[in-house]
Amino acid sequence: MTTRPLSADVLVIGWGLAGLVAAAEASAAGRSVVLVDQEPRSNLGGQAWWSFGGLFFVDSPEQRRMGVKDSLELATQDWFGNADFDREEDRWPRAWATAYLQFAAGEKRAWLRKRGVGFFPVVGWAERGGYGALGPGNSVPRFHITWGTGPGVVAPFEAAVRAAEDAGTLTVLPRHRVTNLVVTDGVVTGATGDVLAHSDADRGRPSSREVVGDFEIRAGATIVSSGGIGGNHDLVRAAWPDRLGTPPAHMLSGVPAYVDGSMQDVSRRAGARLINGDRMWHYVEGIQNWDPVWPMHGIRILPGPSSLWLDATGKRLPVPLFPGFDTLGTLRYLRTTGHDHSWFVTSRQIVEKEFALSGSEQNPDLTGKDVRLLLASRLAKGPTGPVQSFLDEGADFIVEDDLESLIAQMTAHPGGEYLDPERVRREIVARDLEMDNDFSKDAQVGMLRSMRAYRGDRLIRTAAPHRLQDPAAGPLIAVQLHVLTRKSLGGIETDLDGRALGADGEAIPGLYAAGEASGFGGGGVHGYRALEGTFLGGCLFSGRQAGRAAAR
C-alpha cells in the first residue's frame, strides 16, 4: 500500500547513537522530528547498544585519580600522528579532529554526566603504539568504560526520544527503508522508500526484507545517520585498499547484518560526496561467537600485552605488533602472510587478568551496573564468566597442560596444517628464557614490565610477568584469531555543522550527515587509524552538531 505523505521539520534516517542524539537535539530545539529505520524497534540504539561503551576523554578526573597526566596538546599530537592525514579530502576531517579533541578535553564529560552517564574508575590503555612520540598510538590511557557499557551510553538519548514521542513532537517509524532522497530545485526536501513487513526479530537478529508498501516524508532538513558497511562483506572487500594487502576470504562480522551501507548510493545520488572509502577499521583478534546473534557473529578479544602472537605458520609477529599496540599495523602485516588467521599462545593466568571481550552482552557486570558481580568476576581468581564460556565452548580455544600437547592440538585444528611445530616450540621456549631476569632484550617483555608501572594495568589489566610454561600459571592456552569487520572510517563529507557537501565542496541545502555514515565527522575524522574509544564519541559529537544545525 502507499501511505499518505508525512511531514516534519527534521527527518533523521537511522536510529543508532548518532541518529538518537541528532533527533533528541532537534526535538529539544522545538522542531518536529520523524525518525526512521529499516529494522524492528527492538534495534533502537543500533550498533552502539552492542558496544563495550568505551569513550575517549582528555585530562579527565578518572585519569588524574589513576596518576595519568594528559593534556589537549598531548592528545592532539597523538591523534594527528595516528591519523596521518595526507589528502586534499582531509580538509574537513582535520577540522573535525581539532573540534572533537576540544570537545573531548572540554564539555563532553560534563555533558554526559548531566544526562546520568557514569564511568568505571579504571581507565584502559588501548592502541599503545610503540613507534615513537610522533607515531601512532595513545601516549597515555584514555579508554573510559561507561558504567552500563553501550546501553548506558544509549539510554539518555533513547529516553529523550521516547519523551518527545510521548509529547507528540517526534514520530518513530520502524521498518521504513529509505531508497531515495527527494531533491527539489537543488534542495533535499525529504525521502521516499519501502515499508517492510512487520518483524518480531530480537535485537541484532536478521529481519525480513519483504516489502508491503511505500512511504514519503517531507522535511525541511534531512540527516543521514545510517552507519557503515561492516555487515556487508562484499562492500568491505570492494573498498579494501591495496596498502592492506588482499582482503581476507574468511572474515567474521563484528556488527549485525543490517549495517549494510545501503544509504551510501542513496546519498551519492542526491549529490553527496563520499570520501575516504578505502579507510577502514577491522580487528585481528576476532573469535567465533559460540552463541551467535547475527550471521558470522564474531567477538573481539580486548587483549592485555602479555600473550605471544604468532602468524599462521608459527612465526612471531614483529616489533611492535604486540597485543593491544597497533590494530591497523597488525592487520596490514598479517595480510602479507597469505593466511586469514593468526594465533595467541598464552597461559590461564594471563587469560584471567588480561582477556576482556568486547560487547555489552559479554560484560554483564558492567552492563547491568552490578557492583557485587563486578567484584566477583573482575577481582576474584579465574576468568570472567563470559571468558570461561569461550574456554569451554569456543571453537577457537585450545587448552592443554603441556607444550607438546598444545602444539599437537594446534596443528590438528582447522588451519593448523600451516604451522611449523618446531618454530612454535622455539618461539615459546625463547620467550620463556627471557623471563629469568628483571631486564631483557625482548621488546615485548620490556614493554610489559613498563606497562605495569601504570596503576590501572597492574591492578586489573596486566598479569605479573611469568613463563608461559610455568605450571603455576597454567594450563597453556592457544587461541586462533580471525579478522573481524567493524568500522568504516570514511563517509559523507560534511562541514562542522554536519551539512553534507557536494562534489563542488558546497553544502547541499537540506542535507546533513552524522555518525559512521559521515566517517564520524567530516568524512573521516580518524584519518587512517583510530585511537579507540572514539567511535561512540564521534557519534555523540557529530549527532549533536548535525541535530543542532538542522534545527536551525
TrEMBL record:
The keyword Amino-acid biosynthesis does not apply. SUPFAM superfamilies: FAD/NAD(P)-binding domain (SSF51905). The keyword Flavoprotein applies. One of its GO terms (molecular function) is steroid dehydrogenase activity, acting on the CH-CH group of donors. Residues 9-536 form the FAD-dependent oxidoreductase 2 FAD-binding domain. InterPro entries: FAD-dep_OxRdtase_2_FAD-bd (IPR003953), FAD/NAD-bd_sf (IPR036188), KsdD_DH (IPR014614), Succ_DH/fumarate_Rdtase_cat_sf (IPR027477). Pfam families: FAD_binding_2. Gene3D superfamilies: FAD/NAD(P)-binding domain, Succinate dehydrogenase/fumarate reductase flavoprotein, catalytic domain. Keywords: Flavoprotein, Oxidoreductase. This is Putative oxidoreductase. The lineage of its organism: Bacteria, Bacillati, Actinomycetota, Actinomycetes, Micrococcales.
